[in-house]
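Dear colleague,

As promised, here are the two records you asked about, laid out in our usual form so they can be pasted straight into your sheet.

NAME FIELD: protein one
SEQUENCE, THEN STRUCTURE:
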Amino acid sequence: MPRETTYYSYVVGELPEGCQLCVRGEKLVLFVTGVCPRNCFYCPLSPWRRGDVVYANERPVRSVDDIIAEALIQEAGGAGVTGGDPLARLNRTVEYIRALKERFGEEFHLHLYTTGALATKKALEKLYDAGLDEIRFHPDIFTPNSKLFEREIENIKNAFDFSWDVGGEVPAVPGQGERIKWFAEFLDRLGAKFLNVNELEFSETNMRNLLDRGYKPINDESSAIKGSLELGLEILRWGEENTSLSYHLCTAKLKDAVQLRNRLRRMAKNVAKPYMEITEDGTLRFGIAEYGNLDELYALLVKDAEVPAEWLYINREKGRIEMPVEVAIELAEAIEGDVRFFIVEEYPTWDRLEVERIPLP
């Protein structure tokens, strides 16, 4: 029987090494390109990543230095190389893999996702020589009657010429259990190590496609698709009895409640300024003051309100002065006029996504 992990997921056999690091928040997400030879109906890729763009987590990448900087802030133990299809920009992908191995050493674990459409022997050799540790294939098994699918399946066989970990990764699309089982048997015959099955979720970009096909969310508060988790568990039970593969059912809850949270916690302690609190969820909590003239406000706070200057930080980019929560609460009660005070919570990510704002008093 599949065993439930402490990460709200389910496993048969061994958890892939890439997943072990990921659930602990140690995997840098290296998005190499949004270009892909496929156009899968369930693709969740956001509109601003559906092009030839590069991101390390939420940070836009202009050079390898950006990737290294993000990995250091996260204290990453590895990276998941994804897209799009990273093989659509092979030379770039190889450059990044090699650079990460050179900077962080052989123990820095790198896994990569690809459709397989571009996985020629020559391409795979370049990835292997650069230091790739694990490759995960995601052919579109749900549209099997196409030349592109046939090429993907043939190319997957090339991966077994190299001594890295080979596996598959597909979403649990309700009604498509037989196709997933077919893929599992195909991988098993070749000698693959694992098949990851992901709980299918709605996103901004795939919602219309999924709704048009009759798929529904499990409730009004979740993005998970009804029946996907149940299908995933069915695949794991079947796979344990019929194949020698390891399986991991990666749930929507794992991504939101575990993986992201752990990554934020790792980053927060490296980016938090002295006046910021780190919450249990890994967000940064602090007070802010907003006013038309920041220099005038700063002088008011330091000279008239006698706030120690080391407690204040002028953030001109966001048009505010940041400070400890306790200071903001006291000042909001003492200062009248057009100055507005808030308590905010932000992700410790490059884009500093604001997740909560509480007006004071």
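NAME FIELD: protein two
SEQUENCE, THEN STRUCTURE:
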Amino acid sequence: MRTKSKEFTVSIHDCDLSEYSLSFGYDNSTQTYKVVAFYVEDKGSRNPKTMVKVFSLGDNSWRDLQCFPLIPLYWFSDKCYHNGVHLNGTINWLAHHDYKSVDDHYVILSLDLSTETYTQLLLPLGFDNKDDWPKIVLLADRLCFCHDFEETHFVMWQMKDFGVQDSWIQLFKISYENHLESAYLLPLYLSENTLLLANERDLKTSIYSCIDNKVEKTAIRNNIGWLYAMDYVESLVPTH
């Protein structure tokens, strides 16, 4: 069976697109793919501003969007997983609620591609907000949140019902005694009983089994730049 594909090029005439971070998603209401481009102005100031643009493949045009109401974590790091997680017609980023405050806390900034409006999603109540670099990833078609716990465990939560804070459940709490390192873990794949993890520092991968609570090194070739890998799906559009 032949599959259809389309290659396209986007550019912004009045600015350098290479300065932007890009996210890609699908607008369910118009059945249109969209590219979201954003960057932070005045990064050295105490009052940085974001610029956000959206490109619709429906009319092949760019439009300005409302600026981010919060500062995404990508501003503080060049790690690719901060460029947004696409799920259910939304793109989601971890963000600082108020990065200038000593009592700052993290939230998930969610952009609805249909309405092109923002919503703030709260993190699990059990998160103590002490981790400098928590992560959100898409695993098994659900939004997952990962963080360090008191420098002793790697913890991963799953949002069973997207957008509902009470639906967060804790999936794993893995001790670092299992030869893992706190700030460097990146979940790659989740099945019913196992979790595939990459170590961002040494680029090695491990498999955690929740059945026997053990971590084993995998046979996957090392030195893969996992941070720069992108999720692959055959199509963002349901086939039924």
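A couple of things worth noting about protein two: The radius of gyration is 19 Å. The mean pLDDT is 78.

Best,
R.
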